[in-house]
Amino acid sequence: ICFETLESRGGAVRLPCKCKVAYCGSCWDRALAASVSACGSALCPSCRSPMQVEFDAASGQLTFSRSPEEGSSGYQAASQQAWRNRLYEQAKPLQIQLLQQYGATASAKVSAEGLGTSASSSTSAMQEERP
Fold first, then answer.
1. 3-state per-residue secondary structure call for the chain
2. Is the pLDDT of residue 23 over 60?
3. Which residue of 24, 55, 61, 108 could cross-link 90, Cys pair, CB 3.0 to 4.6 Å?
4. The pLDDT of residue 76
């Protein structure tokens, strides 16, 4: 799919379907994201097999497996909402952790900058008071 060698892109992604096409991780992710945007479900870009998407908290990555063929469109709509909700719930603890880490880092940076500003303003004030 991409024009770079698979080795330079981290190797081929292990596909959950029976396709023999080799995708790098970036192309696979982009193709599945386009599929979700276009039709509301993750489909293999080559064979159009439906994919089950899970979030592996240990690795911090999405995992894919082949999902059974769905039947009616009503089932598909319910299934689409269910997998999205499941995925959101699986990713939520890591998202919270990352936001907390970012908040702590940002607070520390603001505090450090605030100390630097108040220290330099007190030095300036003391210099101005001298005759």
1. CCCCCCHHHCCCCCCCCCCCCCCCHHHHHHHHHHHHHHHCCCECCCCCCEEEEEEECCCCEEEEEECCCCCCHHHHHHHHHHHHHHHHHHHHHHHHHHHHHHHHHHHHHHHHHHHHHHHHHHHHHHHHHCC
2. yes
3. 55
4. 53
